[in-house]
Amino acid sequence: MSCGQHDDPQHGPRAMDHWYDDPMELHPASNVAMSPPRLKRRPFLTPIWLSGLAVLFIASLLATGAWIWFAANSTTIIVVRHAEKMPTGGDPPLAPAGEARAALLARMFGDARAPGHIDAIYVTAAARNRMTAAPLAASLGLTPSVVATEDASVLARRILREHQGERVLVVGRADIVPALVASFTGWKDLPQIADDEYGTMYVVTVPRIGRPHFLRLTY
Fold first, then answer.
1. Spatial separation of the C-alpha atoms in residues 133 and 104, rounded to whole Å
2. Residue 148: half-sphere exposure toward Cβ, Cα within 13 Å
3. 3-state DSSP call for residue 99?
4. d(CA 20, CA 139)
5. Coil, strand or helix: which one is 100?
6. Which letter does DSSP use for residue 3 in this model?
7. Contact at 8 Å (CB) between 133 and 144?
8. 94-134: per-residue pLDDT in tens?
């Protein structure tokens, strides 16, 4: 800043003039004026917990999608023994109680318009097996496949090969029911079906990837 006082011989003393310099910083080494420091913007950092939530959300979506894909490609097999038969020799038909049980089976699974209905029916050759499946087959408009083999493992492989992702009903003798479930699931200690036991039902789920599961019910 500079300041001075001068006398004008004509006008008398002049007012003092003041000069101000804008404050500027001097570099201590070079004595060069520097501009005032500018504010710097910090980069925005996403909080760690928010990133963790995003990762968990994406993982849950992937897990849900995988579950839906696996469920959609699972094969469901319902295995039952034939209903009550007449106490005669040879190839006996169903008794009245057996006809009532066959009608119950049709009411349980016979709605063709419902989602998840039965896609195929397999029966072994005996008349009581075919008669047990007949009301349900009529309700669904299906023709049961009559299998000649009594080999449970052969039948299991055929069903999984021809009906991947579908729902299948199998009606067979008392001894073939646990053997067939064992072929699907690998369980070897399933209880045998008693002579007077007709209401046992197994629901087996075989996924494309993963372990098979089953439920043992009474209808």
1. 11
2. 0
3. helix
4. 104
5. helix
6. E
7. yes
8. 999 999 999 999 999 999 998 889 999 999 999 999 999 99
Higher pLDDT pick, 168 / 54: 168
Distance of CA 134 to the CA centre of its chain: 33
Angle between helices 152-162 and 176-185 (to 10 degrees): 50
Element (H, E) at 134: helix 127-140
Q: What are the residue boundaries of the structural domains of the chain, listed by start?
A: 75-218
**Structure tokens that stand for 156 in this block:** 């299991």
β-pairing, 200-206 with 17-18?
unpaired
Token pair, residue 166, equals 């579908």
CA distance 47 to 77: 50
Q: Residue with structure tokens 């629901």?
A: 203
Residue 10 is classified by DSSP as T
Residue 99 has a pLDDT of 98
Topology (CATH) of 75-218: Rossmann fold (3.40.50)
Q: Which two tokens stand for residue 201?
A: 């039902």
Distance (Å, rounded) from C-alpha 50 to C-alpha 17? Answer: 62
pLDDT tens digits for 37-47?
A: 555 555 555 56
Tokens of 39: 């504010």
